[in-house]
Amino acid sequence: MVRLTLDLIAKNSNLKSRKEETTSQYLKKITHINFSDRNIDAIDNLSLCKNLSVLYLYDNRISQITNLNFATNLTHLYLQNNYISCIENLRSLKKLEKLYLGGNYIAVIEGLEGLEGLRELHVESQRLPLGEKLLFDPRTLHSLAKSLYILNISNNNIDDIRDLEILENLNQLIAVDNQLLHVKLPKGC
């Protein structure tokens, strides 16, 4: 079990802090953290990283999205190929523009209310139980109606995309390898 902690970030950073700079000062300045494919299974309190804008945590063992409330400057979050089954604890990420959640265990796209700046959502290839399909919570779709430009829902057993008509600014819908019977594309596509 490996937790992503401030100590781990400080020890593995490829940026060298100046001699007069404390670890705390250094962590406050970090804008990008990349801990992909490191067997990370949990995110610890990283609240010292106030300027974090890009977080790469793909190809890990994370099952729950936690401890990101501090990351109010986060614009890109990469969590693909983990063990996440529920989209949660992201409401404070008001500047989030791109969210990558492909290859997880998510059955319902929900919990994204309040993310009015989200422009890209990638939820392709969810590892769903046999016969199940990816579903969309109407509240989340309504919340993303004006902001979402790119949506990747490929390989999710989806048979109907009429719910996506509410996404008025969507200009790229990636929906290959689904079970679509009736295709009427949302307005912008």
Indicate the mean pLDDT: 92
Total beta-strand segments:
11
Helix count equals: 3
Share of helical residues: 10-25%
The biggest sheet amounts to:
7 strands, parallel
The computed structural class is alpha/beta
Protein name: Protein phosphatase 1 regulatory subunit 42
Keywords: Leucine-rich repeat, Repeat
Pfam family, one: LRR_4
Describe the protein in words.
- This protein is α/β, with parallel strands linked by helices and 189 residues long.
- It has three helices and eleven strands, in the order E-H-H-E-E-E-E-E-E-E-E-H-E-E.
- It has a seven-stranded parallel sheet with strand order 2-4-5-6-8-10-11, with no helix packed on it. Strands 1-3 form a two-stranded parallel sheet. A two-stranded parallel sheet has the order 7-9.
List keywords for this structure.
189 residues; alpha/beta; 3 helices
Please give a quick description of this structure.
This protein has 189 residues and is of the alpha/beta class. It is built from 3 helices and 11 strands.
